[in-house]
Design a protein that fits this description.
With 446 residues, the chain is of the alpha/beta class. The protein contains 15 helices and eleven strands. It starts with a helix and ends with a helix.
């Protein structure tokens, strides 16, 4: 499979046409990744990109590239349902700056991908609009809430996927589909034009097939960022704390896959530094009581979509609970605590280049096993645990595919860096990928 850099060049030399990429994307849609697809619109967008490039115009790096968009983002011509199964009002189809930038470059939107209802869940199931099939095992969940995003990449119907990440919603599907997922620092990219879950923790993010593809897209979507230079592996400081929360209750094979990757990186010259992020305990306490998320979702729904409460799936409604009655002083305390813990975590992480953890503790459960509400609740909390801690500490992170567990499902390694250090994080991740190999080399193929 060609990289985004290679496709960028081939589209400009005429070696590849956007129309051919679009037809390939449409043909690859075999795992129910999409909530909405308009083949005529896809082909028209590709023809527009081909026409511009054929006369020497260059709208931007993403011209002609097939991209999927999570069904929280506004995209002109496509409905936005936010995983509810019912189209939201027209105002939610207006694109924000991130999607507008991609569209202005004549990126080819292949469709709107499935999301968990209002993005409130990490498993990836949706009784309203359907659950995408994980390409590695069609009986298992794909991870969420950007449920269709990782699937669109793994099946080949997109080369760049736009997702969102509040507590793991980019990193979890990336880990469970063998792709790369970048969670940006809150506030780095605008969330305008995206249906909100939590105004405090929501972030826009991307999923790609490789780290180099993530760098290519990131530098285009974040033009103020400095150029990401190559970094050599020797001397990179990897913080690893095997006795902390991140390494507990792991499914068989998860720890082994991450440990094997760490060992290979050490052979390449990276340095393992014993490291414990003590603030994780405070973040876990906040996560356990819902942090600000349930209250902020309740506020959004009550103000913007009050008629949607009764239609919420029980898995979503039960976790909102009585958030509307959360005392103001408790809500403000949680916000203050997030800021305090984040400041402490950013200071502590100065000792290492990245903190390394398993991205997700558990193997993707089967869809059928989640019909039991208690089983769903247990698995959902567990899959969110490692990623949510990073979100609550205000950090940026990336999930890198490094192996498979005993069930034969992909395992992601989470690389965590200080807030707004995405360029450094991506440089380290590329050095790791060059040592470990890309997903097909490390995992095989689905």
């Amino acid at each position: 499979m060609h990289s985004l850099r290679a496709l960028h060049q081939q589209l400009r030399t005429g070696a590849v046409r956007a129309r051919d990429l679009a037809e390939g994307a449409l043909a690859a849609m075999t795992h129910d990744a999409y909530r909405a697809v308009d083949p005529d619109r896809v082909r028209a967008a590709a023809e527009a990109a081909d026409a511009a490039l054929s006369v020497g115009a260059d709208p931007g790096p993403l011209a002609g590239i097939p991209v999927s968009v999570k069904d929280l983002y506004g995209v002109p011509g496509y409905p936005t349902s936010a995983g509810t199964g019912v189209d939201l009002p027209e105002r939610f189809t207006v694109p924000g700056p991130l999607i507008r930038r991609a569209l202005d470059q004549l990126a080819v939107v292949t469709g709107k991908t499935h999301t968990v209802e209002f993005a409130f869940g990490g498993i990836g199931t949706n009784a309203h609009t359907g659950t995408p099939q994980n390409p590695w095992d069609r009986e298992r969940v794909p991870g969420g809430s950007s449920a269709g995003a990782g699937v669109s990449l793994a099946e080949g119907s997109a080369r760049l996927a736009f997702g969102t990440d509040t507590a793991g919603s980019v990193r979890i599907p990336a880990a469970w589909t063998g792709t790369v997922g970048l969670k940006t620092t809150a506030g780095r990219w605008s969330t305008q034009g995206i249906v909100p879950l939590s105004r405090t923790l929501d972030t826009a993010g991307i999923l790609t097939c490789t780290v180099d593809d993530a760098i290519f897209a990131f530098q285009d979507l974040d033009p103020r960022s400095p150029r990401i230079e190559d970094r050599s592996l020797p001397g990179i400081r990897m913080g690893v704390g095997r006795d902390d929360l991140f390494w507990t209750r792991l499914s068989p094979g998860v720890a082994e896959a991450v440990e094997a990757a760490i060992a290979d990186l050490q052979l390449g010259g990276a340095l393992e530094i014993p490291f414990t992020l003590s603030m994780v305990e405070g973040a876990q306490e906040l996560f356990g009581v819902g942090g600000p998320v349930a209250a902020e979702l309740y506020h959004f729904l009550s103000r913007q979509l009050p008629d949607r409460f009764e239609a919420l799936h029980p898995n979503v409604r039960s976790r909102i609970g009585d958030a509307g009655n959360l005392p103001t002083h408790e809500y403000l305390y949680r916000l203050d605590r997030i800021r305090e813990l984040g400041a402490e975590a950013n200071g502590a992480l100065a000792e290492v280049d990245v903190l390394i953890t398993p991205t997700v503790a558990n193997t993707p459960p089967t869809v059928a096993s989640l019909e039991d509400p208690d089983r769903y609740r247990e698995q959902n909390l567990l899959c969110l645990r490692n990623t949510a801690m990073v979100s609550y500490l205000g950090l940026c992170a990336l999930s890198l595919p490094v192996g498979t567990d005993r069930a034969g499902m992909p395992v992601g390694m989470q690389l965590v860096a200080r807030a707004h250090r995405e360029p450094e994080l991506l440089a380290v991740a590329r050095a790791f990928e060059r040592c470990l190999g890309q997903a097909p080399e490390r995992l095989g193929t689905p």
